[in-house]
Every structure is written in C-alpha cells, then in structure tokens.
Amino acid sequence: MQFILLILGLAAIIKSADVLIDSASKIARKFGISSFIIGITVIAFGTSAPELAVGILSGINHTNQLALGNIIGSSLSNIALIVGLSAIIMPLQVKDSVVRREIPILLGIQIILAAAILWDGQLSQLEGAAFLLGFIGFMLYIWRDAKHSMTIQIDAEGDIDIDGDGNGLPQETETLTKNKGQSKLWWFSILSLLGLFIGGKLTVDSSTQIAQSLGLSETLIGLTVVALATTMPELITSIMAALKKEPDIVLGNCIGSNIFNILLVLGASSSISPIHAEAGLWLDVAAMLVLTVFVFVLSLIKKKLQRPAGIFLLTSYIAYVSYKVISVLVI
Length: 331
Fold this sequence. Notes:
This protein is mainly α. It is about 80% helix and about 0% strand. It is globular.
C-alpha cells in the first residue's frame, strides 16, 4: 500500500509541477514580471510546503532536530543536486541582478544560520522570531522589486503597448478577456501548488514508512529518505523548468526555497520550541556554505552555470550523501 501511495505522490508532484511551470510563466509574462521573481516566490513557497509541514510538526512535537538536519540537507540538495542536474540538462544563464542581490542574500542568511548554530549549539526561540522577521523583510523586498519590474504592458496583439490603449480595442472587451484569462491561470497555479503539497506529503509519509519497514534507523531515514522526499517537489519542478527552457525559474526556485526553508521553516519551528544542534552538524553546514560560495563565484565570473559545473555539483552531492550514509552505517 505504501508503494502505491509513493507512486501516487510522485505522479501528483510531476503533473502539478508541469502545470505550475506553464501557468506561472504565463502569469509572469502577462504582468511583465520576470520568471525569476515568480520562481523565487510562488514556486519556491509551493515546493517548500513539505519542509514547512515537517518543521512545524516537529516543533510542536519537540523533535525539531530532524527539521534542522532536513533543512540543511534540503539546502544542499537544492544547490548541488537540483542546480547540478538542471545545468547538465541546459546551461543556466545567471543575470547580473541575481549575482549582485539574491545569491549574496542567500549566502548571508546561511552564514547567519551557521553563526547562530555554532555560537551556542542551538537555535533559540528568540533567534527563530528574528528569522521570521527576516522572512517578512525578504518578502517586502521581493514585492518592491516585482512592483518596479512591472513596467511593460502588452497589447491585444502581443506587442509592447506604448500608448496604453490596448491597440484600439474597447476597454470593456479588453478588460473582460484579460481578467478571464488571468483568473484561469491563477486557479491552475493554486491547484498545482495544492497538488505539490499533497504529493509531497504522500511522498514523505510513504517513503518514511517504507524505510522503517526495512529496518533503517531514524538517523539514516532523516539524512536520506526525508531530505530527498521533501526536496522532490523542487527537484521535479526544476527539471521540468529546465526541459521547458526556463532557467530563471530553476534558479529562482532553488534560491527561494533555500531562503524560505531557513527563514520561514526554521524560524517557525524554533519559535515553537528551541532546536538543539548535534555536535557533528558543523560539517554539513560547512558543505552547504562551500557549495553556495562555489555557485556564487562561478556565477560572478562566467555569468552562467554550464554542464561541467553541473557535473561537479552533482558529483559533490553524491559523494556527500555517500559519506553520510557510510558514516552512519559504520557507527
């Protein structure tokens, strides 16, 4: 039964990701908003839903060490596994604005997280509240950025509408047609986000049950099954975006998911109850920072992530996970 639920969960994620990419990219173009902004907000929030559910539930149950490990593991998956696979499928062009702002913001947030953990070995409720305030500030920044980017209006024939007259169409007809099309796209986006959440929940629950039935330890399950399962929406959504030639959505999704996971998920979870970090977590945090710096430096120098970089990131992720699994099995 759990295998059937796992297949259903993955199927829901794949179909929902396909619909979400199409509808979100069309919404972005209709409003003159970049695909990156859509990826770093709407899609990132939707694909981070499984991590948010795990984080809140673990905070309530006072088992949120799993949430901390899961978020760090998901951050590594987003940067190494997802960006790596996507770069192998197609080169990811990195815009100057992303290099100057979003990637440094992510790196700064990760450094703050590392400092908070290494300072006293825990994330306190006060630090969790600070992360939540940081999340609100980040969303306000993105909203302002999106508002400034909405400068191009498209007329009825798909051209730039310089005079704002809708190419001579009656205002009532233009507004009715525009609202009808936008309403349909928004409903598709909302339903696909719901599908991602349901599919992610089914995938996490069923894969965890399967792992437990096979006699795997909780530590091993947290390091591998839960981290990979909660990252599945981001993975499939990013692969679908790469196949559809939407590199901005790939980067926006991965950067946004990492920021959401740290500020929102860890912020909410540690606000409910403090999170005590394990002594060996410094190695995972270091790996997260090193790979993020690698992506940042390469983006700064070459303005793109090509196949060799993708292969390196993917190989690094496989080596990291293999090391963690072997170390757990040996212990």
